[in-house]
Amino acid sequence: MEKSYSKQIRNILAVIAVLLVIAALKLAGEVSVVLVLALFIFVLILPIAVGLEKTGLPAFLATLFSALLILVFLFLTVWFLLYSANTLVRTIPSYYGRINQLEALITSMIGRWVDLPEQFSIIDNLSIDWMGGVLVPALKSFSSSAIDIIGNVFVTFLLVLFLLIERHTLIPKIIQISRPDKQAKVSAVLDRIVKQVSKYLALKAVISLATGLLFYATAILARLDFAPMWGVMAFVLNFIPTFGSIIISVSMILMSVLQYAPDWTPVLITAAGAIGTQMILGNIIDPRLQGNNLNLSPFVILASLSIFGYIWGVVGMFLAVPLLSILEIIFANMDSTKGIAILLSSGSSFKRRMKYKEKEEKIDNPSLFSDVYMPGDEK
């Protein structure tokens, strides 16, 4: 009885600790997101640095080459964001006339089925100045925050650079501070984290690149404005599971409607290209390439997107799956948290113990959960 009571106390304290950590990360959002992003990039670039050293390249040159790769990537990212924002600020006001035409078209279509007052206007009834009061000021605000963006990118780069410089001592120090009988296990866990996250990101980058190219080709075929932007956005947003593909597909289709309605041919081309790309790459090819690499529950992934998105915004949604994968690996290798790892996992790595047991015992009425994977030996 006393043991059960103490276990309940530990569980309650664990829940409180998790909530406190989330609150702390949210309060220190600007600092914590830079630190987490730096660690994330370090894990991503570490296999490249190690691979260069294995080819015989000196550690200094391997570090320098890896740092240059990161610097180029961060520079291109910032340049694209600022270039896209400035381009939209210059060109979107010209779409105001198209919005009025589209609103008139929608009103006439609704008027066929519903009696509307004369001079009825959906936009006027909303009483919102979408162009001058919402969209353009938001884009200008984004452009004016360029200094803050560049400052955060610079700090992130410095953190990753120093992590790369100390990579030969950082991981050994983490292993050294653990218990002597646990050092081999800690080393194996760290190695698995780096390999699994790197493999996930590499495969995701390939799929995202193909997605971006197909979205760009679709935009060119439909003669949409900002075709390069749609391709890059599709590449970037594809790293956000489920929500990313929905956002880019819906945005691109709405843009085609705004640009071409009532000419529906380009709209159909855009919709077919966007939805077809996501169906083939996102629902068929991506799962086949990833296989059981992540072993994460789809529901848990969606929940983590909400939680990390709440803490760190869009950046948190990009980091959600890799961070969740790291947590699952850590929990699976600790006796006190193996149950949490099982809840986080998809269950695909477990044998169907109950089904096997029913077969052994020749049960006439199989259990409701006979198809459920249960923890057990892998072989």
Please explain how this structure is put together.
- With 379 residues, the chain is mainly alpha-helical.
- Among the domains are: 29-137 and 145-177, no CATH class; 195-293, no CATH class.
- The chain contains 16 helices and no strands.
- The chain has helices at 2-27, 29-54, 59-91, 96-111, 122-126, 130-144, 146-165, 167-176, 183-221, 227-237, 243-260, 264-290, 298-312, 314-332, 338-344, 353-361.
- Helix 2 (29-54) crosses helix 7, helix 8 packs across helix 9 and helix 14 packs across helix 15.
- The longest helix has 39 residues, at 183-221.
- Mean pLDDT is 75; it is low at 350-358 and 360-379.
Question: What keyword list fits this structure?
Answer:
0% strand, mainly alpha, single chain, 379 residues, globular
